[in-house]
Amino acid sequence: MRRRLAAGNWKMHGLATDLTEADALARAHPAPTVEVLLCPPATLISRMADVLARTPLSVGGQDCHAAASGAHTGDTSAAMLVDAGATHVILGHSERRADHGETSAQVAAKTAAAHDAGLVAVVCLGETEVERDAGQTLAVVSEQLRQSLPGSATAGNTVIAYEPVWAIGTGRTPTLEQIAEVHDHLRSLLPDHEMRLLYGGSVKPANAAEIFAITNVDGALVGGASLKAADFGEIIAALEAADGGTS
Prior knowledge:
By secondary structure, the protein is α/β, with parallel strands linked by helices. It has one domain (5-243): Aldolase class I (TIM Barrel), CATH 3.20.20.70. The protein has helices at residues 19-28, 45-51, 78-84, 94-99, 104-117, 129-133, 137-148, 176-189, 205-212, 229-243; strands at residues 5-9, 35-39, 58-61, 88-91, 120-125, 158-162, 196-200, 219-222. Strands 1-2-3-4-5-6-7-8 form an eight-stranded parallel barrel, surrounded by six helices.
């Protein structure tokens, strides 16, 4: 049975003082029945790993370079993330694809590097509003999935996150039927059918339960709502309830 996952992406938010939120989350969920992951900015990974060291919560990065080392000023390798205490890394997020021009081929190379370093890769897919309106959603995510996963991808080292670009940080979400359609389609294409599928894009306490009730939704990649322990805690509780357990 696939273990459900609540992953928080802090994006470019958070200073050392904000680690109190991670500590509060761990205290409120000392024994979660689902997997919980926090991905802070690179500057906080090591310190967050220390805060969460004796808890079941995991820490991840938000990107890594495809090379193990080298003359890549400002970049971080997968091995460096591991050294800082990370166990996971988010790759191919739409903000990386858009802001940094990342291609699916580059995402695949980064994912392979993450696997080589022993990290679990959370690989993101999603269509733009123009692509959705043109009826191209399934074609777009299918191609992104095909091109973004290296041959090393398995259920043990890779999680897929479907995040419609037009829903990220906008407060808008697809209908439950639209989410189900994409997740069912992706499940049929996965190289390993036990690979977990997360939904992301304006997930919040108010809509988490209904999203988690959808078949083939194994959890969520949460943005803004993961910054506050109270909000993320409610989402974790909703995922636990969908999974049939409580912390």
